[in-house]
Amino acid sequence: MLLLGLLLPLFSVSANTETVYRVPLNEAVEKGLYTFLNQSLTEAEDQNADAVIIEMNTPGGAVDAAENIAKLMADSPLDIYVYVNDRALSAGAFLALYADEIYMTPDATMGAAAVIDQTGNAADEKARSAWAASMQNAAEHSDRDPEIALAMIDPSYDFPQYRAGEGKLLTLTAEEAVEANYAEGIAETFEEVLVAIGLPDAEVISVEESFLVKLARFLTHPIIVPILLSIGSLGLVVELYSPGFGLPGLMGLTAILLFFYGHMIAGLAGYEAVLLFGVGIILLVAELFLPLGISGILGGLAIIGSLYLAGADMTQISISILIALAVAITGMVIIMKFFGKKLKLFNKIILSDSTSTEKGYVSAVERRELLGQHAITLTPLRPSGTIVIGDERLDAVSEGNFIDRNKTVIIRKVEGSRIVVRETLEEEM
Predict the structure, then answer these.
(1) CATH superfamily label, 19-209
(2) 3-state secondary structure at position 1
(3) Which Pfam family, giving just one, matches this sequence (predicted)?
(4) Residues 43/77, Cβ–Cβ less than 8 Å
């Protein structure tokens, strides 16, 4: 009984141990990050964690990815805190506003959230308006001043006290964020954050990205996607000019399969996208055996449709497809112009046999023996008419001048069945 009494407090302490999940966000916000955070929050919820602290250091990222992650944070029943360890810019500032509380290192910054397009230029008015509404909703979600959030994306707001007079985007330092109620406190270390949220003795479980998550983030990166599609399209194009199936085709298929694999791991695509792509390939192969080209057109549409089905951002996937098509067309031009290759697929729809004289074909009987002979015009040549050589009548044309009947002419050209003559000069008689 004495031993049992000594052990019971140990079991009680173990059962009541507080746990905090430490989740890093140290890169750009993109679609692959959603999978990682979703897995982390799900695991924390399953383990009845007392809190999740997202340690943030990001320059921003994709708007659509940020909005999906924000919804994930807003719908989570967990207490979620953000610890800005260096910077939370652009989409990072947006995500921080969906935390229950924000803490920052002394030299951290937050803000500068203007939305830009794929080329790095300022986005159009429609995109800016939608992003402004999202930033305002984020600020109101955490009971913070929405005008400060709007000043982070719109330089027309005037906050000279924070070095952001009219014409400048607002970026807050740690002290300014606390003053503006955009952060609950300043913490030099992660342990100070634990103290600030009332969990100083909590067990900290650090979450790390798995290899598959890292691979998904890499394969779905906005720069990698067009590279994969370009390799895929170029490899398949080269394969169409080559006999059998070789290395170019294998590289092309591998690149495209990596595209789908990355998007499936990231939770952006399902098997239906891969199935549609497979149907497209089958239709393209069927084009080799079917007439009219209908299956080829349907196959191409199916492949493009599968890419759109896998891509979460229509604009990004459209740009990636255009780049891939440009690479494929350039490859076709180079192969045909510099290597003299012909597309195998065209052999069934384009006549490749030539009707040359070397193969025994003649367009008409050519009377080369008539060249230089003299004849008599049976009818006037205006410029066409009839001439006579011996007892043979022949159709002929003059070189352009009128020649009366019963005139002596000389045959100048024989082009198939066309005989060209001119009137004979006196010295030629």
Answers:
(1) 2-enoyl-CoA Hydratase; Chain A, domain 1 (3.90.226.10)
(2) coil
(3) NfeD
(4) no
Residue with tokens 């989409």: 91
Q: What angle do CA 95, 100, 105 make, to 5 degrees?
A: 70
Check for a shared fold between 19-209 and 368-423.
no
Residue type, 306: S
- Contact (CB, 8 A) for 365 and 382: no
For the chain, which residues make up each domain, given as ranges? Answer: 19-209, 212-269+311-346, 368-423
* Residue ranges of E strands in 320-407: 374-377, 384-389, 392-398
In the structure, what pLDDT confidence band is assigned to residue 371 with cuts at 50, 70 and 90?
confident
Residues paired with 159 in a beta bridge: 164
**Other Cβ atoms closer than 10 A to 127:** 15
3 state DSSP class of 165: coil
Across 379-406, b (16+ Cβ under 10 Å) vs e yields bbbeeebbbebeeeebebbbeeeebeee
What is the rounded distance in angstroms from the CA atom of residue 301 to the CA atom of residue 68? Answer: 29
- CA-CA distance, 304 to 414, in Å (whole number)? 56
Determine the Cα–Cα distance for residues 427 and 424; give it in Å rounded to an integer.
Answer: 8
What is the pTM for the complete model shown? 0.65
Q: Which long-range contacts (CB under 8 A, 24 or more apart) does 214-218 make?
A: 215/262, 215/265, 216/32, 216/35, 216/262, 216/263, 216/265, 216/266, 217/27, 217/30, 217/32, 217/33, 217/35, 217/36, 217/266, 218/32, 218/262
**d(C-alpha 419, C-alpha 366), whole Å:** 10
Q: 175 near 109, Cβ under 8 Å?
A: no
Assigned token pair, 337:
């112009």
Could you identify the residue written with the tokens 């707001």? 157
pLDDT digit string (tens) for 388-426? 988 889 999 998 788 999 999 988 888 878 899 988 877
CATH class of 368-423: mainly beta
In the chain, DSSP finds a helix count (H) and a strand count (E) of 14, 13
Confirm if 225 and 259 have CB atoms less than 8 A apart.
Answer: yes
Residues contacting 175, CB < 8 A, separation 6+: 186
Helix axes 247-265, 271-286, angle to 10 degrees: 160
3-state secondary structure of 111: strand
